[in-house]
Predict the structure.
Amino acid sequence: MSAPSLLPNKSSSRYSVGMFSAGEARCDRWQEMAHAAQTLLAQLSSGSSTNETLATVQSLLAPLSVLETFRAYPGETMMSALKDALARRDYSSFSRITNRIAKAIITGSYRRSATAWKLGEEGEMEENDRLLKDYFDTGDLTKPYFEVLIVSDDPTPEQVRQGRVELRQLRRPEDPFVYEAVTVPSFEETVLSVVMNADLQAVIIKDNFRFKSQFDAPLLRTYLEQHLSQECGSLEPKDYGVALARAIGKIRPELDVYLIVDGAVEKVASRLNSKNIRRIFYGLEDLMEIHLALMEGINQRYDTPYFNNLKNYARRPVGTFHALPVARGKSVFNSHWIRDFGHFYGANIFLAESSATTGGLDSLLEPTGTIKIAQEKAARAFGCRNLFFGTNGTSTSNKIAVQAIVRPGDIVLVDRNCHKSHHYGLVLCGGQPLYVEAYPLTKYSMYGAVPLRTIKKALLDLKAEGRLDRVRMLLLTNCTFDGHVYNVQRFMEEVLAIKPDIVFLWDEAWYAYNRFSPFHRMRSAMGACEALREKYASEAYRAEYSEFKKEHGKIDPKNPNLLDTHLLPDPDAVKLRVYATTSTHKSLSCFRQGSYIMVNDDYWESTEGPFKEAFFAHTSTSPNLQLIASLDVARRQAELEGYELVGRSIELSLILRREVNRHPLISKYFSIATNAQMVPAQYRDSGLEDFHAEGVSWKTIYDAWANDEFVLDPTRITLLCGSAGFDGTSFKGLLASKFDIQLNKTSRNSVLLQTNINNTRSDIAYLIKVLADMSRELDRKLSMDPDEKTAFDARVKSLVTDVPELPNFSRFHDAFRENPRSKTNEGDVRTPFFLAYDEANCTHVKLNSKEIDDLVKDGEAVSSNFVIPYPPGFPIMVPGQVISPETIDFMRKLDVKEIHGYQAALGLKLIKPEKLGARGKTISANGKKNGAVRHRALAHKKA
């Protein structure tokens, strides 16, 4: 028998979709089974042939029988009754049981209703009902429900049933949660269960189980060999337990793992590689302790210290004499004029407001109580050493991180297309940006990501000039707005080989969910840092590095072959210094402006002080308490159901991609950009072109995510609308005004959609219907009027074919460069930024004038500020930049209404040419002075 859905032996778009969220595929199959069962019953009643329908039922039931062995519901008793009814040709009972199971799975009612678990009709009492009666009659299903996986060697069905009964007998009315157990007999089936059963929250591993599954799963074995070789290679049976615990941690690190051993429990407990096991028990000497450990483990993740305390505060009678009249709501609810404000939001939001930091509410700036604990819990949940709550959005979190690390005169390698907060952060701290260019996607008026080769060349050039010590940070966006995801581990590894103490700042504003998808986690800042730290501590890596050093010797920056060589860092020299900022509100259940700053820094002891100063500088002394509480709650949800919700959002995005691109009418006017369209072939060694391409399986996609330089996040959906005659801005406006569909970003000929944990299949269906209706209307109009068709074709050509070239960053003016003869192009943005504060230093020149052309030709058109058109949403000019003809040409072809830093009536704001020559010596002298001060400080520190 072969394992279905996640590990198929054939390729199809449906199989490749199902791998991301087995829950949605399971719902579909049970729904199909319910429909087939009803058809079977109808055919029997009418005397029609049932052969074809029976074949359909059997083809659905066979894989479902395997899938359901990994779940507690519906359980063996109900599945056996289902199969027995079918074998007896009792199609009435078969249809009734199938419908009950399907409804319970689709609605999730098995988590909260005793009826879902009952086998018989109302009023009947079957064996399964009797086993569960006492348990469900206590009302336990009103409590949060989860499932526990038990790994045990070849238990008989009766032993499994008895084990469940014993666990149920341990339950007490005061237990905060309720759970059911599911048992599997092998290492491979445990991995399958962990991947496919999102209800799992804990795993109990008993000694002496086999490795191989009872099912045929060749792709699973290949996956284990390639990606969990350290856990699974050359194992003896006595090591299966600890190895399995480590494998579970690689796939779903949030799960609690317990080990039950029959002997030498002390030795197992002391082994270093058992660190991710929550507790180790000696045999089954105390089942109640295991039950209590399960409750405590879940409760530690469920507990939200700040939110809980805020709820308690709101229930207390408090006299307020501080500066916050809305606290307790009396100024609102006693008002004659603004009571509707209170009625709209309800009382709790006012009862839970205060400007006090006493009474357990804690201070965000100096947390010592519930905020401190909440941040520690979040750090554990998101896999970092330290985590800080941000309440002013990731724009502020970015400035905090940049200011904490970068000193005046430090060089920062940065993607020019990063969020504007990074550029302003460099202005504030005096860091010198060295802009590294992302590859262009000219056809869609957007940029991709920065190639590794580009970054390595910049660092090697700096090393060749003896200025590598000036480099402080590499700052990149992962994933990008449009969904380009870096191979973070590979990038950090090769950069560390050139500069082993560089600081990485990954702007993961759109990527807060990455911890809870095994695909995304391996391409996240914290996931990659964790993997590299483990890798560099191993003897295997030391041997690998030794061979690398023998072959390549010391890194010679003048050796061009290094650009195409996978560089390895010295494990004794490496210092992992990794920061990530996330817009928690963008992808988790958090109020707007909620942000996390994640830290994994080997030099944290020396960085903590500057970080706190930066945090104090940018964080409000009056943070919103509800926002802090939502950051606490977002962590709880992510830990307990993030895996399920993120998987569902991925699957919804893949369903949308498939339905739009394969629809004969919609795809005539609209399409969703594929991997091949968004990531050029030279960055896709796997050759993956589309999630739904023929021959693609779950393994194809996993290998691409493990190895390719860049991949496309499926939840970032670039909907191309140019072929429908719409530019992105007008199409976005039409969707919002006529259809109440909201979205984020636009480009010249596309809009960006995002699926997240808030979306449902109904949302996807509505969007598809809107696109289908619009396509039908376009088809009708164009078929009726030839003139309309001619105008339409011209419009499409202007949007899709006649697109302006995207300008690269040109250079900083020599007046704002310390060494104009340097190969690298870093520069000072702070000086020209503040120079422009004095209008006497600036002039305005019309965009379409001959004057600007002459200034550009002479190299004297120097921007005084950031110019950011929306779209594409990145600065095409920065302070101190020499404006190129390509930039002017791009500006002239732009047909967008929103351009920050530019007023058409005045023209481009430039630094007067005569001010540049006068400032050259001053800038150069200041640069050298800053450098000398920094070097003296470093020398003093070393001494």
